[in-house]
Amino acid sequence: MRIAEVSHGFWTFVFGRLDLGSLDFLKVFLHPSLNDTILSGAAWVAIGGAVIAVVLLTYFRLWGPMWSKWLISVDHKRIGVMYIVLALIMLVRGVIEGVVMLAQHADGLGGGFLSANHFGQLFSTHGTIMIFFMAMPFLIGLMNIVVPLQIGARDVSFPMLNSLSLGLTVAGAMLVMISLVIGDFSTGGWTGYPPYTELSFQPGVGPDYWIWALGVAGFGSTLTGINFIVTIFKERAPGMTFMRMPMFTWSALCTSILLVFALPPLTVAALTLAADRYMGFHFFTNALGGNMMNFANLLWLFGHPEVYILILPAFGVYSEVISTYSGKRLYGYASLVIATMSIAILSFTVWLHHFFTMGQAANINAVFGIATMLIGIPTGVKIYDWMATMYRGRVRFSVPMVYALAFMVLFVVGGMSGIILANPSIDFEVHNTLFLVAHFHNMLIPGVLFGLLAGYNHWFPKVFGFRLNDRWGYISAFGWILGFVLTFMPFYVVGLMGMTRRTVAYSNPAFQPWFMVSIVGGLVFMVALASFGIQLYVSIRDRELTRDIGGDPWNAHTLEWATPSPVPSYNFPVTPQIFARNAFVVAKEGGAGYQEPRSYSDIHLPGDTSVGVIAAVFGTALAFGMVWHIWWLAVLSLAVIMVSLVGRALRGDRHPVTIPAAEVRRQHKAWLAKVRTITPVSRALERDPRNYGVAALEYVVEGEHYLPELPEAAQ
Predict the structure, then answer these.
(1) Relative to the CA of 667, which of 33, 184, 599, 695 has its CA 20 to 30 Å away?
(2) β-strand 704-706 against 603-605: which pairing, if any?
(3) Per residue in 395-419, pLDDT tens?
């Protein structure tokens, strides 16, 4: 008996709460059923994907290059690419989970094929992934790639901190992926509302996965916000005043401010919920002084600014895309800046509309309803400014422009449903129905996902030196658009008919035809996702046909297009001098788009660091230990992270990089020599193989365009 107790104690010390029943990939063998087959199948897919990735990296001997050129790099462009790769991996899982839920809805009249617990996990992981581990890494990745280039900087202000932020975000994402293989995820939705996520309702590990995934990743995102605020304030090129900054940079600045002020309430909410679950506190319990409404206020004090953390960068993308592919400068630049700042401020005044139904006084609901309607005004200003930019422009229906046009139509529909929901009396009727699900997907898919995909297509050649395949880009774009319409427009209808959200099955046969339309939309989403992957594959295969050498394939306006593609590690051979808004197009119009500096100097760049990798690996281990009560693993992992950070602080940058002026001159002169051999192309040849990234100047005057004669120096 004593030996058994010692053995059990040792097992508990080493493995915490882990046991064979926690391994999802074994459940199909222990409890064979369709539900467990799907659950275990997903786990085996995740395991198989990881194994295939390891095998391919080993077979092609890519571990060394991946480590030296990517994982330990502090180059903002490479960090941005790694953020986007993470986002795309999570996008695949999020879309597949969404389609599985749509299939359950289509079969829900007869009870369906998923258990209620499994369905609850699916909508919880789907929301958590798509918001925190797809949209946020994607937008932060675009910010990393574009913002330093647009303001004429060498890098962000704190390159090592940038790598650390990425590592913490990866740790949070890894924890969510591990929950697919080991243990259950929370069934409390992406918002994690107590008391349902308290121990008395969910004693398992599900809410703990949610708490630590968001806690770790949220801390990394807060550091990112600080980094970009300092970068935009302190690293702008001489002459780059605030009112000369591109709109994407303005959006990134407002987003960063929101990150810094909005994420701490989420961190506090998650940690106080952890105190309830781990230490017996009563912040949000049903008894002993707990008040779950405090959690709702903390969560949505983050949650509604989070909506604009996601949407503002997409708005910035749309500003760049619409201006570029209309061949015009942005109409109403100052009003767009004011509207962006207004949205950022007003986003902190409307959080209570997320719980009109939770018992506040009517007067309070009325105040927040009015504030919610007011925030639609600056958004409307943006829509009108973008339409005015297109007016009499030479609009090219490129892949990014298709996303932008679809956004303007569909986002207005979602905005109108938002104004309807801003009325507390109407919201009270439909808040817990699929009408609300349709509304927020109407905001986030056209508003955020389309913007991110437009930015991906727009800036891809700047990062990799070749354009993406247009044919598959159009197929993917129209797939996303059609998939959205077919999937979520029926949700408005069944929501008004009374179909509640988060419901695994239903008894009203009138719902089923609409859900059959939705599952068709889900299948179209899958086609769009597959087309997206095929586009990347075909683009890499045919990259010699779409080379971007000159760096300006779209006849763009902003500073990042004045650099070679792909951009060198130092970004600019010398720090640019800015004399106007849209500095690059002004230079091109003056025949000075591709100038050689009078002199060069040595360029000093920060050295690589493994701090981000350590944060990713041991941050995952720390959170996993906390979830499963493996205390020695949690303590050891925290110690390793702290030692690495303190060690870096004490040692400083031991391996800074200096690029001699002669090498900078050689590289830049070689690029300029190539540019001079390229024939500038008009916008009619934008998708032609002859477009090597040097644009012929085109002006738009009274609705017509012409190509001016280039000055001899520019020729």
Answers:
(1) 695
(2) unpaired
(3) 999 999 999 999 999 999 999 999 9
In a domain, 126, yes or no: yes
Euclidean distance between CA atoms 185 and 315, whole angstroms? 33
The residue assigned the tokens 């960068």 is 313
Q: How far apart are CA 217 and CA 174, in angstroms?
A: 10
Q: Kindly give the interhelix angle for 76-106 and 159-178, rounded to the nearest 10 degrees.
A: 20
The Cα–Cα gap between 377 and 371 comes to 10
Please report, for residues 234, 262, 268, 523, the alpha-carbon distance to residue 294 in angstroms, rounded to integers and kept in the order given: 38, 16, 11, 40
Q: How many domains does the chain have?
A: 1
Residue 668 in any domain: the answer is no
Share of the chain above pLDDT 70, in %: 96
Range(s) of the domain holding residue 629: 62-569+605-658
Give the CATH number, domain containing residue 636: 1.20.210.10
pTM assigned to the model: 0.95
Structure tokens at 409: 């139509």
How many angstroms separate the CA atoms of 252 and 147, rounded?
Answer: 8
The answer to whether position 586 is within a domain reads no
If pLDDT is split at 50, 70 and 90, which confidence band does 385 have? very high
pLDDT for the residue numbered 709: 44
- Residues 507-512: contacts with CB within 8 Å, 24+ apart? 507/109, 509/109, 511/108, 511/109, 512/106, 512/108, 512/109
Please give the pLDDT value at position 699: 52
Residues sharing a CB contact under 8 Å with residue 504, sequence separation 6 or more, in sequence order: 104, 108, 112, 114, 115, 116, 119, 120
Calculate the CA 382 to chain-centre distance.
Answer: 21
Helix 470-496 vs helix 512-541: angle between axes, to the nearest 10 degrees? Answer: 160
Residue 701 lies in a domain: no
Q: What is the mean pLDDT of residues 204-218?
A: 96
CA end-to-end distance (rounded Å), the chain: 91
- Residue 665 reports pLDDT greater than 90: yes
- Judge whether 313 and 348 are in contact, CB under 8 Å: no
Strands (E), 137-266: none
